[in-house]
Amino acid sequence: MKTIIRTISTFACTLLALSATLKAEEKRVVLTFDDSCKSHATFVAPLLKKNGFSATFYITEGFGFKKNKDLYMTWEEIKQLHDMGFEIGNHTKGHMNMRKLPEEKVITEIDYIDAQCVNHGIPKPVTFAYPGYAYSTPFSPCSVRPFRVFHVLGEKANS
Ligand SMILES: [Zn+2]
Predict the structure, then answer these.
(1) How far is the CA of 65 from the centre of ligand 1 (A)?
(2) Ligand 1 centroid to residue 132 C-alpha, Å
(3) Whole-number Å distance between alpha carbons of 95 and 60
(4) How many CB atoms lie within 10 A of CB 121?
(5) To pair with 74 at 20 to 30 A between CA atoms, which of 22, 105, 119, 122?
(6) What does pLDDT average to over the chain?
């Protein structure tokens, strides 16, 4: 919990610093949040909205999504993020290492989140974030769906 609070505090300070220093036409920053954390709905999205920032939330049902609603959003909360004007992206059903999955399983993982979005009144995602930095896969999700952006998140992305 301390790590989550520290991360949120760091994020809030960074956001406020960005808000104070960036002029609209000077620089562009892409804000993305993955893993369907509850704090995205309760803290991050309202703060972003208040300061006029847009962002993409990459949704997965991995980790404790189905059982721990204290730490993970509900689909109703994810829909609220969409209704607030934020983009909802695909982060796969189970947040599994895609390097180890056969093509059929990759398709199933992506299609599941697409279907959940549509079932909850959210447009089918047009961007995708690889779970767990596993972007070097034998099979490219690009051949499954014409995603606009494939996203590799985190500091391990360049290693
Ligand atoms: Zn993730």
Answers:
(1) 12
(2) 5
(3) 6
(4) 11
(5) 105
(6) 82
Domain ranges of the chain: 31-158
- Please name which of 37, 35, 19, 16 lies closest in space to residue 27, comparing C-alpha atoms: 19
pLDDT over 60 at 14, yes or no: no
- Residue 60's pLDDT is 97
Facing residues of 104 across strands? Answer: none
* Interval between CA 1 and ligand 1 midpoint (Å): 18
Through-space distance between the first and last CA atoms of the chain, rounded to whole angstroms: 28
Q: Residue 109: name the closest of 98, 123, 125, 121 by CA.
A: 98
**Nearest C-alpha neighbor of 152 from the set 28, 30, 63, 41:** 30
Does the domain at 31-158 match CATH 3.20.20.370? Answer given as yes
| Look-up of token digits 């447009």 | 123
